[in-house]
């Protein structure tokens, strides 16, 4: 990208920080902005506040060469990339307040020729809203929705598509969808991504790019819901769902995903609701898939309760708390919900095992005595509830669990 000297990345979380570090590693000055003083201080020491393989080394290198600096305040830059959360509210309506706050903080620093990129997964129409908000905050500048061919500022949506746990590799190798408010905007954004993306950059308009991201995650949600529904049907019919899926997947055009304790994370369990919210009449299957996946933790809890009824003083070990394998992320985790609920309902003595964390977040501190090692859980528990397919649990031999009742939501033991 011609004349590029500084990129500002707003939001230094699971997406913003790796993106900032990768851009800095290409020799561009990066100014990272986050509202968390703790995140900013940690990064400026060359360390990271999240778990992601190899990210620590990249951040350390970027900070020590002076290419990456973090701050709680933005400053002038050529490009502003927004990577803040877009959660939903209690009524499953999208909450755009983080994006709006980010736009408000960068607005005074925007200059003619700047490029603003929204990376956060967003409901259809959000990028256009940014253009409108900015036209109100900066009436001195022409925004692309006002004059697509001669705007002063370029605005595009380029949804992140990386898989937690493989972020650094996927940031570079994945194809990127780049949706501009105008084709000039898309073109300009592509020049930035070509700096570090080896995959193809696919240009479209902002609304299609927004919908593409929501579609990808809804596709996965619907497919996981199919697997989860199958697992409940198979329990009812006394068929091993894992054997069944393996056999069915031998058909050349069948590829069933894996059942689990429910769908977690802040993407797949959230994004389909953005589609439901904007097209409630049409999005029937997408809504139902969400409901099936959301009901799975309750189903697992009922199974554990039934098993616990067989013991006088049941000791139950929940193996895994994170939302998926080999990460430390507990947000929107069905495994954590199940552990909390079993504990709350006093189904027995509940032991929590999570090898990727040292302590529980504040909200769960009252359960800290329940966080035990796998070793202790194997010694003490009558019932093992496998909730996450962590490497550590995969290394268990069937002899290790032979004397236990095992409720295996991940098919670790076949
Ligand atoms: N899960 C199953 N069965 C499966 C696959 C996943 O139960 O067969 C569960 C996982 O255990 C987890 C949840 O689904 O609880 C989501 O995990 P995931 O690995 O499918 O996805 P995320 O949330 O880590 O990342 C997704 C990715 N989207 C797609 O694969 C379409 C990623 O590429 C996106 O960038 C990310 O969402 C995002 O940020 O939106």
UniProtKB/TrEMBL annotation:
Descriptive protein name: UDP-N-acetyl-D-mannosamine dehydrogenase
InterPro entries: 6-PGluconate_DH-like_C_sf (IPR008927), NAD(P)-bd_dom_sf (IPR036291), UDP-Glc/GDP-Man (IPR017476), UDP-Glc/GDP-Man_DH_C (IPR014027), UDP-Glc/GDP-Man_DH_C_sf (IPR036220), UDP-Glc/GDP-Man_DH_dimer (IPR014026), UDP-Glc/GDP-Man_DH_N (IPR001732), UDP_ManNAc/GlcNAc_DH (IPR028359)
NCBIfam families: NDP-sugDHase, PRK11064.1
Protein encoded by which gene: wecC
Keyword NAD attributed: yes
Gene Ontology molecular-function annotations: UDP-N-acetyl-D-mannosamine dehydrogenase activity
SUPFAM superfamilies: 6-phosphogluconate dehydrogenase C-terminal domain-like, NAD(P)-binding Rossmann-fold domains, UDP-glucose/GDP-mannose dehydrogenase C-terminal domain
Domain (UDP-glucose/GDP-mannose dehydrogenase C-terminal) ranges: 317-414
Domain of life: Bacteria
Taxonomic lineage of the native organism: Bacteria, Pseudomonadati, Pseudomonadota, Gammaproteobacteria, Alkalimonas
Enzyme Commission code: 1.1.1.336
Organism: Alkalimonas collagenimarina
Keyword Lyase in record: no
């Amino acid at each position: 990208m011609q004349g590029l000297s500084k990129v500002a990345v707003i939001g230094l979380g699971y997406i913003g920080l790796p993106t900032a570090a990768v851009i800095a590693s290409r020799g561009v000055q990066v100014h990272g902005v986050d509202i968390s003083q703790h995140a900013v201080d940690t990064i400026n020491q060359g360390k990271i506040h999240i778990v992601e393989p190899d990210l620590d080394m990249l951040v350390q290198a970027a900070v020590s060469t002076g290419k990456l600096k973090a701050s709680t305040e933005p400053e002038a830059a050529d490009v502003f990339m927004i990577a803040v959360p877009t959660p939903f509210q209690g009524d499953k309506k999208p909450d755009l307040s983080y994006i709006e706050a980010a736009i408000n903080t960068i607005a005074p620093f925007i200059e003619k020729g700047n490029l603003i990129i929204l990376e956060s997964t967003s409901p259809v129409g959000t990028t256009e809203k940014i253009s409108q908000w900015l036209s109100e905050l900066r009436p001195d500048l022409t925004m692309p929705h006002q004059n697509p061919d001669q705007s002063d500022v370029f605005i595009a949506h380029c949804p992140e598509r990386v898989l937690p746990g493989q972020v650094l590799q996927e940031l570079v190798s994945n194809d990127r969808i780049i949706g501009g408010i105008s084709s000039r905007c898309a073109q300009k954004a592509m020049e930035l991504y070509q700096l570090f993306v080896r995959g193809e950059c696919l240009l479209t308009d902002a609304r299609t790019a927004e919908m593409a991201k929501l579609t990808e995650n809804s596709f996965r949600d619907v497919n996981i819901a199919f697997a989860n529904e199958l697992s409940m049907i198979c329990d009812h019919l006394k068929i091993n769902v894992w054997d069944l899926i393996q056999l069915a997947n031998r058909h050349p055009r069948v590829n069933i995903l894996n059942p689990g304790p429910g769908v977690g994370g802040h993407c797949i369990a959230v994004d389909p609701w953005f589609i439901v919210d904007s097209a409630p009449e049409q999005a029937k299957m997408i809504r139902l898939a969400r409901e099936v996946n959301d009901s799975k933790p309750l189903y697992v809890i009922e199974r554990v309760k039934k098993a616990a009824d067989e013991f006088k003083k049941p000791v139950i070990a929940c193996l895994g708390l994170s939302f998926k394998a080999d990460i430390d992320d507990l947000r929107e985790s069905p495994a954590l919900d199940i552990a909390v609920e079993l504990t709350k309902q006093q189904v027995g003595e509940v032991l929590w095992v999570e090898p990727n964390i040292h302590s529980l977040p504040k909200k769960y501190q009252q359960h800290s005595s329940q966080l035990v090692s796998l070793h202790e859980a194997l010694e003490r528990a009558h019932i093992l509830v496998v909730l996450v397919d962590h490497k550590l649990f995969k290394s268990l031999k069937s002899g290790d669990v032979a004397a236990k009742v095992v409720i295996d939501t991940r098919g670790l033991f076949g």
